[in-house]
Design brief:
This protein has a 6-stranded mixed β-sheet with strand order 3-6-7-8-9-10, sandwiched between helices. A two-stranded antiparallel ribbon has the order 1-2. The protein has a two-stranded antiparallel sheet with strand order 4-5. It has 3 helices and 12 strands. By secondary structure, it is α+β, with helices and mostly antiparallel strands. The longest helix is centred in the last third of the chain and has 14 residues. It has one domain: tt1808, chain A, CATH 3.90.1570.10. The chain is 23% helix and 32% strand.
Length: 154
């Protein structure tokens, strides 16, 4: 499966396999990447590892490429999809992909056991912080304490 996803990347679109459903989107825009870089730069010295735009394989066999995945230890996989479950995920809303970033991805991540899901929409400054037991609507800039012990500045 991963080989198919990587071949699709060579043609241009980013392809993910979520709960048996193929999803694709164009590569990110400059505004999108600026937001990802700003969030990653603000990551504190909590000891967590954050990676951007890397395939993650989930327990149900799905593959996604979150904008930012946060782990509490270094993943072992260097040359293939990461199988370690992230503690937190960050998605930056891409223009034209609002449904994927605001509805599909957060539900999927929470269903797979990710503890914190953060979604940021740069044009509106809307920040959604979701956990199994709650959802908060915030406005950027904001600091979000994650269950893993880190604080994320969005």
């Amino acid at each position: 499966m991963l080989e198919t996803l990587l071949k699709a990347d060579e043609l241009g679109p980013r392809l993910e396999w979520v709960g048996g459903l193929p999803l694709w989107e164009a590569h990110p825009t400059y505004r999108h990447q600026k937001a990802v870089d700003r969030i990653r730069k603000g990551e504190g010295a909590c000891g967590c590892i954050h990676v951007a735009n890397v395939y993650v394989r989930f327990p149900d066999g799905s593959y996604t490429r979150p904008d930012i995945a946060i782990f509490c230890r270094e993943p072992e996989e260097l040359d293939k999809a990461i199988a370690l479950l992230p503690k937190a995920m960050v998605e930056v809303v891409g223009r034209g992909y609002e449904a994927k970033d605001l509805e599909i991805a957060p539900r999927f991540y929470l269903s797979q056991g990710v503890k914190d899901v953060v979604v940021f929409d740069p044009p509106t400054l809307l920040v959604l912080h979701l956990r199994q037991d709650r959802a908060e609507r915030l406005v950027s800039p904001v600091e979000i304490p994650l269950l893993c012990g880190c604080t994320l500045t969005v």
